[in-house]
């Protein structure tokens, strides 16, 4: 019943939002090169954000993502090449829903949804930016002691050569 209601409500919501955008000609988009990106509250009216509806409709984005991820093998969940398309569709869906409901993107509901997705699917993925592996201790000691022991010998040679000239 909830799914049926969602499929009836979501197109009506989007159709109504499309009409509203066409009538008012307002676009809720801030470009990267816009100098006034930090003062968006004065340009966009986000006062009518229905967070309950946003939470409910964003569930469809998450369900679609979960279905796409279930189609992939669990071993491929950490392979970015396999995950990029469903993840991009999730992001686009969440952004579109937030914009259709006159909500900021990202907001706390969207962030919670992404945190849930990340803990469910990507928590056990290895960090791809792992640091260098430490060299064996014997190599480190050798590479440290050889130059350090050469310094007194070189100092002795410099002092000895300077005395020979005098």
TrEMBL record:
Name of the molecule in the record: Receptor activity modifying protein 2
Residue spans crossing the bilayer: 139-160
Record has Transmembrane as a keyword: yes
Subcellular location: Cell membrane
Primary localization: membrane
GO BP field: angiogenesis; calcium ion transport; cellular response to hormone stimulus; G protein-coupled receptor signaling pathway; intracellular protein transport; protein localization to plasma membrane; receptor internalization; regulation of G protein-coupled receptor signaling pathway
Membership in a protein family: Belongs to the RAMP family.
Gene3D superfamilies associated with the record: Receptor activity modifying family
A single GO molecular function term of this UniProt record: coreceptor activity
Keywords, ordered alphabetically: Cell membrane, Disulfide bond, Membrane, Receptor, Signal, Transmembrane, Transmembrane helix, Transport
Span of the signal peptide: 1-16
Any one Gene Ontology cellular component term annotated for this protein: receptor complex
Membrane topology type: Single-pass type I membrane protein
Pfam families membership: RAMP
